[in-house]
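Study the following:
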Amino acid sequence: MSTATPQPPVPSPEESHHERTYRIKNTRMRVDPPRVVDVQVSRSQINALEQEGFIVRERLIQGELLERLRQAADEIEAEELKNQKAGEEGGFGGLFVRNLIDRHPTFLEMLRFEPTISVARAVLGPQVQVHASVLRVAYPELQNQQVEWHFHQRVVPDPQPAFFYRPVVLDNLIYLDDITLESGPLVVLPGTHHVDEDIPNGDFSDKPGQVVVTVPAGSCVTSHSGLWHKAMPTVGGGKRRLLILGYSPVWMKQIDRAGGGLTDALRNSPDEEIRELLGLSGYY
């Protein structure tokens, strides 16, 4: 049986934000203003993210924004299905679409979504970029909906050289539909981002200490890219729409390179934060 790890208690409104202040160590610049981050979760939630590798924020997005994201997802889905059948990309029995912020104005609005950006800055540092923006749609009528145990950023050599550091992306899984045991929930192994272990390819089995995440629509699971996780098969209900926003330090290579779409108009923006989020500044 799967087990559940308790999440930190839901903070009161007064505790749900805290500040982190950074200084970029750059002696070549005369003006070196501090970077103050309004982190839109509590300190205990950040601690849980650091220790367990994930946090769950139920109903983070609701109301009009949730409905617009659903509509945008449906429009992208309909456009993609004109050129491919669901299940052809990635072998997971669903639809997988990258680079959403360049493809739809509603997803472009998420470029500056502080509830996720601020958490990324709290654990990755103040200079972050949108590493990926992805839509995944799962369908109960298709086969091979489940996803094996895996982690992201699979570039770690064995043995590790002395100066190698694991690249880290902070992934935010925003569920646009209710996630139940039937709709194919996420399953995570808490704390595995801290350890160097292997799970064989093609392993879908239950593991001791795993957590099955079932959440209402609009909820967000934020996780370390090195956390082992899998997805259970979609066996009932309607389709499951998932928006993934990934953040990385600005000096990492992006999976979804911005450009060739809606972000082109922002490439020469005088707003340095926008350019940084697009991966166009903040590094040498």
About this structure: The CA atoms of residues 131 and 253 lie 8 Å apart. The helical segments are 43-52, 63-81, 105-109, 114-124, 272-277.
